[in-house]
Amino acid sequence: MANDKKPTDNSPNEGEGNKTAAREYNEAQRRFAQSDKVEEKAREAEKALDGPENEVLRQAEAVGKRHGAGEDPAVKKQQ
Fold first, then answer.
1. Which H, E and C letters describe 5-73, residue by residue?
2. d(CA 18, CA 22)
């Protein structure tokens, strides 16, 4: 066996469900939500939708939707 290490042996690869990355992401989102930047960023996004960036944003949205698995059927049942 070339590699006898278990995933818990201080390996940088945490496998599926990287808890460290999830914890860091959640903390960054919490800090942003509690900052004074939320309203400012919302205004910037609104301006982008009304400005010349609109077409680029719409194209990016279309690309993302093509790669999606679709909406969860359970969501429609709740309506």
1. CCCCCCCCCCCCCCHHHHHHHHHHHHHHHHCCCHHHHHHHHHHHHHCCCHHHHHHHHHHHHHHCCCCCH
2. 6
- Tell me the per-residue pLDDT of 54-71, one tens digit each, with 9 for 90 and over: 999 999 989 988 877 777
Single pTM value for the model: 0.50
C-alpha distances out from residue 58 to 43, 49, 77, Å: 18, 9, 28
From residue 75, alpha-carbon distances to 65, 72, 79 in Å are 17, 6, 7
3-state secondary structure of 76: helix
Residues 6+ apart with CB under 8 A from 69: none
Question: And the tokens for 11?
Answer: 């390996």
